[in-house]
Please model this.
Amino acid sequence: MHPFSYEKVTNEHEALERARLGNATFVAGGTTLVDLMKLNVEVPTALVDINGLPLNQIEDRSDGSIRIGALVRNGDLAHDSRIQSRYRVLSEAILAGASAQLRNMATTGGNLMQRTRCYYFRDPVYPCNKRQPGAGCAAMDGYNRIHAILGASDTCIATHPSDMAVALVALDASVHIRAANGERVVPITEFHLLPGDTPDRETVIRPGELITYVTLPSGPFGPRSAYVKLRDRASYEFALASAAVALQLEGTTVRSARVALGGVATKPWRALEAEQVLTGAAANKATFLNAADAALTGAVPRRHNAYKIELAKRAVVRALADALTH
Amino acid sequence: MSITPIDRLEFIRITAAATSVRKDTKSGVSVAPSASVTRALALRVNGEAVRLDVDTRVTLLDALREQLQLFGTKKGCDHGQCGACTVHVNGRRVLSCLTLAVMHDDDDIITVEGLERNGVLHPVQEAFIERDAFQCGYCTAGQIMSAAALLNESCGPSDDDVREQMSGNLCRCGAYPNIVAAIQSARGRA
Ligand SMILES: Cc1cc2nc3c(=O)[nH]c(=O)nc-3n(C[C@H](O)[C@H](O)[C@H](O)COP(=O)(O)OP(=O)(O)OC[C@H]3O[C@@H](n4cnc5c(N)ncnc54)[C@H](O)[C@@H]3O)c2cc1C
Ligand code: FES
Ligand code: FES
Model:
C-alpha cells in the first residue's frame, strides 16, 4: 500500500471540503476500498473517513417513503422490521450477499459504489480498461465465465457485483448526492453507467461528491417481492445470476411489475421487456417463462458464459413464483 | 556456511514487500515516493486502555498482532474472504483485515484473548472444546469470535440457520459438523 493521509470528518461540509484536496477518497466500511488498496488497484493519497457523519438512520417520511442514510450498515438495513415487511426483496438481497461480518461493516453508500470483482480488474498484472483507460481488456478473450451478457461494450464486460443495488432497482429507489454546489437526486437506474467507451466511469458520482441518502418510495408492491441468487456455493459468494422482482396483483392478473437482474450485467439491470410481458397478464408459470425469455432477449454471451442465459431465466421464474406466494 | 537468523514474521514481511514490488513493475504504475504518515490512537483492547502510534496503512489486524502482540487473531487471506481475523468492535463482529487501525480511535475491541471473564471461558469456548470443533485450529479464533457474536444476533433455530450465519468463517480442515454442534450447544446454555 502507498502512503496516504487520513482525516475523520464530522459534518457534510467538512467532508466536501476535504474531498476537494488532491486525490482524496471517502472511506466508509472500508470493505472494498481497503481490499483494492492492498492490491494497488486503488491508490488514494488522502482518505477522508466519513463514519462520523450523522447519516446512520432509517427514517419514515410523511409521504410514506423511507429514507436510508448512506452510513446505515447493510446488516442493520436488512434486519429493519419496516424493510422486512414493506421491501422484502431488499432485505433478502442484502442477506444473500457477503457474510455477517462484512454486512456489519458495509454501508448503503459504499455498497452502491463497490467495484467489479472481475479478476483481471483486481490484478494489475493484466490490462484493464476500467483500471487504466486504453490499456485493453484481458477478460474479452480470457476466462470470462463470471462476466456480463447484458450491457457490455467492446472495452469492458465486467459485471456489477452488488445484490443490494439490484433490489433497489426493483423498488424504484433514488440516490441523494451532495456536491459542493448543491444537492441532486438521481433515480437508481440512472446512477450506474454502462461501460461504453469509458468503463472507468462507473457512476454519475463525480470526484468529491458524497452520497447522503437512498430513498424508497411507498410504492404499490407491498410484500410481494423476492430475490433469488444463484452462485457457485450456497453462501458467502457473489452472484452468477440473480433476480429481484416485485409484483402488484389485481385478482390473479399482474397490474404492474418490476424485474431486475444481477450478476449478468455491467450495471444493476432493469429488465423492462420482462415487465411489459408481465403487465396485464395472468400471474402464472407460463407468463413467468415468457417474461424470463423477454428479460434475456438482448443477451450476448462470450466464450465461457453462455450458461448464464438459462441461469438468469431460471432466477427470474423462481423469483416471480416466490413473490406470488409472499 | 553461516545462516543469518531471521524470524518468521520478518521473513513474511520481506516476501510480501518483494511481491508488491513485482506487481508495480509489471503494471507500469509509477509509484510516487511519499513519506509514511503516522497517527496516535487511543482505544480499548480487551478492556484495557491502549495508546498506539500507527502508520495509516496498518490494518486493525496487523496492529493487534504486530504492535500489541495479540497473536490469537489470525490472518488467513487478508482480503475479507475467510473470517480468520474476526474480532468484535463495539460489540459487533467485523473483519479486522479490511479495516484500518487509524479508523478505530476510541473504539472498544475484543479479541479471542479477551473473551473469557475472570478466568472462566466463554460458553462458546467451552462448547468448542467439548465438541472438538477444530482440527488444525487456524480458523478457530475467528469461528469462536463469530459464534460469540451470533449468540446476540437474530438467527433461526436450525443447523442450516447457523451454517448460513457462520458462512463468513471458512475452515479448510472441514471441522464444520462439530463447529455447528458446538454453537448449537452454546446457544442452549447462553
Ligand atoms: C469477501 C467479500 C464478499 C462479498 N460478497 C458480496 C456479495 O455477495 N454481494 C454484494 O453485494 N457485495 C458483496 N461484497 C461487497 C460488499 O458489499 C461491499 O464491499 C460493501 O458494500 C462496500 O461498502 P463499504 O461501506 O465497505 O465501502 P468502502 O469500501 O468504504 O467504500 C467503497 C467505495 O465507495 C465510496 N464511498 C463510500 N461511501 C460513500 C458515500 N457516502 N459517498 C460517496 N462515495 C462513497 C468510497 O470512496 C469507495 O470508493 C463482498 C465483499 C467482500 C470483501
Ligand atoms: S484474514 Fe480477514 S477475512 Fe481472511
Ligand atoms: S480447524 Fe483447520 S482450518 Fe479450521
